[in-house]
Amino acid sequence: MKRxxxxxxxxxxxxxxxxxxxxxxxxNRNAELQRTWMAxxxxxxxxxxxxxxxxxxxxxxxxxxxRQLAQENxxxxxxxxxxxxxxxxxxxEKQKVDSLSGYGLIPAEVxxxxxxxxxxYLILNRGYQDGIQEKSGIITRNGVVGIIDAVSEHRAFxxxxxxxxxxxxxxLGNEGSSGLLVWDGIHDNGAILKEIPLQNRYQPGDTVFTxxxxxxxxxxxxxxxxxxxxxxxGATHEIAVTxxxxxxxxxxxxxxxxxxxxEIEGFEL
Amino acid sequence: xKRNAFWKAYVLLLIAQLxxxxxxxxxxxxxxxxxxxxxxxxxxxxxxxxxxxxxFASGLLVDWLSEGLLGLNALALVPVAYARDSVLRVVFGNxxxxxxxxxxxxxxxxxxxxxxxxxxxxLFLIIYIWVDSxxxxxxxxxxxxFLASLVAGVLVSLLTLNALASETRR
Lengths: 269, 170
What we know:
The complex is a heterodimer. Chain A is of the alpha+beta class. Chain A contains four helices and twelve strands. Chain A starts with a helix and ends with a helix.
């Protein structure tokens, strides 16, 4: 019964659309203004349709684009560290002091990360088969992410910087004092730079870099921006630092390993 | 006999519309058309496909024989024919369509008839003015033109409907 009613309605609609199309065709042929207007409308419509489909295509290819960007980022980071090492070597050669260079870099992807604990961790998709070693640092272009603690064949377990047991050696400004940078335990992007001598002058807004003293991380990686300071025990400053690294979106990272680590640790024994 | 009288009146009104389109151009703000009410008053027993074709042909004829844009009246009038039964259902109820009765001021009251005329006239004018301006006129101009044309159109349509009714009564 419904089908019997539906068919004439559909035919009626088709006839209606046909007559409207015929009217538009006549208008299009006989009226210049209307022709331009309709052409504009049609172009606008096509633009929208193509725009949406193009956006969808871009969106669906985002994962691949991210991967390519991460690879590109890794190569750039490698070049940057290489140039930084060269610069340091030139400088220290003049000073007749041994330089610290030679970090191996391996790109990796974070497959799991915890962020809501006091002892946060992360797992990478690379293991010793890929050349990952324990006591390696994990960095991105925005700073330090963590330290590799254990390695399996294809995975690596690491302590996140957002872990109250982790501290890294950091420097205030280009030639400022070094101290220990630790997570403040509260904020996602908050850290505290400890043990900065009182006599050291600093300005809020100064950039905090890795110092290179920890042996796990190359020097001069920007970590964050210094904020307010307070005096601790009348002897040192504790400076609040706002980190550049956004841990909520970290995915592609670079594992850095100091090739001279064992040799240097041998001296410490 | 009544049927023939209606169609005679319809043709006469079509000629009247041609005269209006060609000579009634006192102001750009008023676009006077009795085509919507002519389609509205076509007997309900007339097939809906035929009504669509009639609207298309009437619109095209007026476009062709007046100094208008070929296709503009047809474009605005075909939707009136398509929506005619729905308008009658909304204003007069389902019974009118079911019984295939024709409406009139005497049997249905002036308020209902005016409401039906306003609806078809508005539908016609919205399409006509929108396409006629083709984005070259301001919204305010189009709005004023729509309102002025609607008022004038409804008044003239009521007179037209009266003429059609008296013609078919003869």
